[in-house]
Amino acid sequence: MTDEDEGEFAAELAKLQQEHRDLDAAIDALQHSPAPDLLRLQRLKKRKLALRDRISFIEDQITPDIIA
Questions:
Q1: Residue 68's pLDDT band (boundaries 50, 70, 90)?
Q2: How far apart are CA 32 and CA 40, in angstroms?
Q3: Is residue 22 part of a domain?
Q4: Spatial contact of 48 and 21, defined as CB atoms under 8 Å apart
Q5: Does residue 10 form part of some domain?
Q6: Is residue 67 situated within a structural domain?
Q7: Chain center to CA of 56
Q8: 21 Cα distance to chain centroid
């Protein structure tokens, strides 16, 4: 992997992590509202899981494979 690729992955990773934190805050706020929109809550949680999967993939790409 080139330094350029690693830089692109790092930038995307930072963006996705921020979006993940934002979704976490939105989900928390929605859950504590008097009448939460359950469909919206479900969609936000699904999006958060998809982001977590993408974040894990990028972290795996950045971390070098070490053969023990």
A1: low
A2: 14
A3: yes
A4: no
A5: yes
A6: no
A7: 8
A8: 8
Number of domains in the chain: 1
Instruction: Decide if 30 contacts 40 (C-beta within 8 A).
Output: yes
Which amino acid, one-letter code, is at 47? R
Domain presence at residue 68: no
Please state, as a whole number, how many other Cβ atoms lie within 10 Å of the Cβ of residue 53: 10
- Give residues with Cβ within 8 angstroms of 29, minimum separation 6: none
31 exposure class (CB count in 10 Å sphere: 0-12, 13-18, 19+)? exposed
Tell me, what amino acid is at 56? S
In the chain, DSSP finds a helix count (H) and a strand count (E) of 2, 0
Q: Which residue has the tokens 């690729």?
A: 5
pLDDT in tens, 9-36: 999 999 999 999 999 999 999 999 999 8
Taking a C-beta distance cutoff of 8 angstroms, is the pair 55, 23 a contact? no
Closest CA to 41 of 13, 33, 21: 33
